[in-house]
Predict the structure.
Amino acid sequence: MKRIVTLFAIIGLIAFSGCTTDDNVDSDTIAEVIDVNNVNFDLNGNGGIRRFGFTLFPGDVVLAYRATGVENGRTVWTQIPETFYYDDGTQYFTYKFNFTDVDFELYLDGFNLNTVPSNLRTAQKFRIVIVPGTNPSIINKSVNNKVDYSDYYAVIKRYNINDSNVKQLN
């Protein structure tokens, strides 16, 4: 009888030795980069709601950038919110966004949005970056993850995101 119990104990040890309970890694989350082309804001500042096409996980972060030019052959991406001011320093309008676990919205916020010039209101291009996160209830808060989120290229490099195959939304 002792030999049978010992045999079961060894088989059980071998069977369970391959299991892991590392909850700090969420292997289902992936980084995603989405271009939103030809965004036209109406005179009320609405730019529309768009679906990701997947569901975000708890802890995932969404960053948004607006194409503001080209420098040295690379697109210049300015993080939003991005605020514009009148010459006297008062706020004119701001590009903003919000998101849920399934969609995001781009919009303008400010006063007299009907006076925003058409070159800042029509045919705008945005880049949405989903940075995979870890469920906030299990994240290791002692890890030093400093990155300049206003710098699109620093974010891509820090999180090892491949932006060569960008999902296109119109």
The chain has a mean pLDDT of 82. Residues 6 and 12 are 10 Å apart (CA to CA). DSSP finds three helices and nine strands in the chain.
